[in-house]
Amino acid sequence: MSIVMDEVGTEVPKRGLLPISKATQVSGVKVQLEMHALWKQFDQLGTEMIVTKAGRRMFPTFQVQISGMDPAAEYVLLMDFVPVDDKRYRYAFHSSSWLAAGRADVVAPSRMHFHPDSPACGAQWMKQTVSFDTLKLTNNLLDDNGYMILNSMHRYQPRFHVVYVDPSPNSQSNAFRNFCSFSFPETRFIAVTAYQNHRITQLKIASNPFAKGFRTSDPQDQSVWCPPKGRAQPLITKPGKQRSWGPNASTGDPDPASLLVEQGGLYHYCKESVGLTVERKDGQGILAPPYFLPISSYWDCPGSS
Fold this sequence. Notes:
Strand content: 25-35%
Radius of gyration: 24 Å
Distance between the termini: 47 Å
CATH class of the largest domain: Mainly Beta
CATH topology of the largest domain: Immunoglobulin-like
Largest sheet: 7 strands, mixed
Order of helices and strands: EEHEHEEEEEEEEHEEEEEEHEEH
CATH architecture of the largest domain: Sandwich
Oligomer: single chain
CATH superfamily of the largest domain: Transcription factor, T-box
């Protein structure tokens, strides 16, 4: 009985083959997923990650703690995303669950995302949390930014790879010995262009520090964060009438941001970021979001989703 490596770097038994050994620089590497409890919470609901043409960051952010490296050796860290299965999915709102909806689309071009600090010595990688907060997901098949291209409504497994930079002349022939791979089942997700499960939306708002602009701490207060700069203007609507904002006002479709808040008193025009503040009043004050600012620019903050 001998040992070979499967597609994610796990040692599995195989008969009739010579044993394959990993280089000592990677054989002892161990990886621990950060924010494991949060990932589990999302996984129990069915994690969704937004993909856009312009690219969207992941939340939770993929972060790991690494141990067992050779402190003096150099390593390259990278990630890729592989389909979990050959199915396309749809969300069933009546049962709040994901259902298979046929065969998967043609697999998107496979890419690797290199950590921007690569290569670096093992001592540097091990002294702090390694975060892939610059990684972005897109559904643009023609993307030339190096983002990870995924098909919407398909399920993916993120994979993390540690590659030893072998300085020896014959390093290419021994390439299979110089890497190890790790995957965490709780990080699986379905790529979507808009969140399907409202509980996922709520959990992302509640746990993402960059989403505090859409979080209310007291249902009675309805207070929402606003940047320090900006000018305020009261908006009053007539009793019995509801006001619509944004490009879709004429069609009766509310601006998506307007769904995040309800009653209030001040409308803030913010130049560079989306921010809203509410002062509870007895009158018919309505808080309108600054629809002229693209919401996507807010979510492009580091660590946003």
